[in-house]
Design a protein that fits this description.
The complex is a heterodimer of chains A (240) and B (104). With 240 residues, chain A is mainly alpha-helical. Chain A has one domain: Arp2/3 complex 21 kDa subunit ARPC3. In chain A, a hairpin with a 3-residue loop joins strand 1 and strand 2. In chain A, helix 3 packs across helix 5. Chain A starts with 9 loop residues before the first helix and ends with a helix. In chain B, helix 1 runs antiparallel to helix 4. The model of chain B has no long low-confidence stretch (mean pLDDT 95). Classes of the chains: A mainly alpha (240), B mainly alpha (104). Chains A and B meet through helix 1, helix 2, strand 1, strand 2 and helix 4 of A and helix 1, helix 3 and helix 4 of B.
Chain lengths: 240, 104
Amino acid sequence: MHIPDGYLSPQTAVPFLALMVPVWGIATKKVKEKLKKRQVPVLSIGAAFCFTIMMFNLPIPGGSSAHAVGAVLLAILLGPWAACLGVSVALIIQALVFGDGGILAIGANCFNMGFVMPMVGYYVYKLVKGSANEQSGLALIAAAIAGYIGLNAAALITALEFGSQYSLFQAADGMPLYFMYPIKVAVGAMMSEHLVLAGPVEALVTALGLRFVGSTYPHLLSERASFKNYGNSSEVANHV
Amino acid sequence: MFKNYRNLWLALGAFIILSPLGLLASGTAFGEWGVDQLEEEVGFIPAGLAKMADLWTHALLPDYGIAGFDASFIQSAAGYIISALIGVVLVAGIMSIFSKIVRD
């Protein structure tokens, strides 16, 4: 899902970069306000985890590949804005150091995987889980559904960005200048890969990740709940 | 930073070591073909794409590997693990520095 340079016109790529600047600004403000000091290492580990999980390419029949992202797991554990920053840093390092995803395309890639995915995933998780406990079976099912829908939302947006180039930017002879297939083809290819293979893997990663964190460090899950429900009580507990 | 979340760091380490599993899927993802692959995958190279494709040529470990060190799966796997390790250090390091803004 890492769009390389040249697949999006500059007229598309640059506005996405411009859009991400205020998004990163809001995310920074939210993280500063809401994240707890003891959650900081989890954000570092979580961002690094997203970096690594994206290296696990899954084979798609026909010679293609796709991968999970981990953004929804981060959003559930730390909130969608913290996830936005963590995934964005992973994507920027991937582009600069490893040539995975374009430089001008950083804005679009961070929007797709670092903004749309954790936001959609986070609210799907909240909606499905309802008032159930963060460590309940329902929470795990909600996490799986959220991971599945979050990744596919990102894949759909990516496909729309790709496909729109075909109709919007053509040379005088009608040849596409950037991405070279119509929107139908882009959506069909991206969605079949992510609905059938990468989505279920993302669902597993999200649910198993939540279960692993919940069983090894239960306070990380109750932290968010207690922070919200009891206001300062968790702060008091911190200092005792 | 390390002692409080030892199990999470260990899990991350396991992912780094297992990362070469990702090399088994050798196909290029949809819409990520390199210029050298486009002729075969698509049949032509769009003019605008050709101009922008090589915007960034400073990737130190292109495609998560050491350039010229990919003669065998073992070499690629070693390059992949080293890439995962360097990526994890960079990403976790940057996030830790950035998180100094958190005051509680």
